[in-house]
Amino acid sequence: MYRLLILFVCGLAACLPAVEETCETLATQHCEQCTTCSDEFSSNALCDVDANTCRDSIITRCETQAATVPDPKNELQTCADALEAYQCTEFMSDYASGARPLPQECDYFL
Question: Where is the signal peptide (predicted)?
C-alpha cells in the first residue's frame, strides 16, 4: 500500500516542471510581452521593469512568491497556461485600463 502511495505521489510530482524552470519560462514569456506588445511604450512603462533586468527580476519574484504557497507547481502551471493564452490585445487593453498587463492567475507570481 505505501509503495503504491509513494509511486502515485512521485508520479504526480514528475508531471509538472520544477518551480525554477516554470518561473524562468514565465519570466521569458512575460518579458517578451513587455518588450514586443507595443512600439509606443517602453517595458518600464508597460511592466514597471527595465528590459535589461526584466527576466532576472521576474524570476526572483516568482521563486520568492512560489515558496509561500502550499502547491506552487499547480498554481504556476495555471499561471503558465493563462499567460500562454494571453495575447497582446489583452495585454494592451489591461494596460490602457490601468490594470497590470498580465493574466489574473499570474498576478501573485509576476
Answer: 1-20
